Amino acid sequence: MANAKQIGEVIRQARKSKKITQQELGARIGLAGDAKTAISAYEKGTTKVIPFARRAKMANILNIPMSQLLYDNEEPEEKVTMRKPTKGLESGMYHCSRCGGSVHPEGKILLYKFCPHCGREIEGWMIVL
User: Fold this and answer.
1) Measured between alpha carbons, how far is 119 from 4 in angstroms, rounded to an integer?
2) Is the pTM of this model over 0.85?
3) Which is more confidently placed, 88 or 93?
């Protein structure tokens, strides 16, 4: 767990090691407008609190543990599992054991480290073909 400057440094180092620009990272986590300015503020620690969902997306994109993006007052969540029901209308969907959010894998290769809905870390990596 860390403060805003420490979290920003983790993001900056991971982004640079992946050779992703601030603008690209911002776009990939869904920031509208001047994404570069927002990511720059995250990395400098001038944004007081980065929304949890954005941190979860960055952790997925940058392949870093979510625990490195937690603030001092946050506790790590227990890991969740993604399960695929064998029957019913949603038998092709994977569902989060924590929030119930679903992922539909058809026609895509997806790699998840965190639930795309609640941001909780998934037990192991989820590869959906």
Assistant:
1) 19
2) no
3) 93
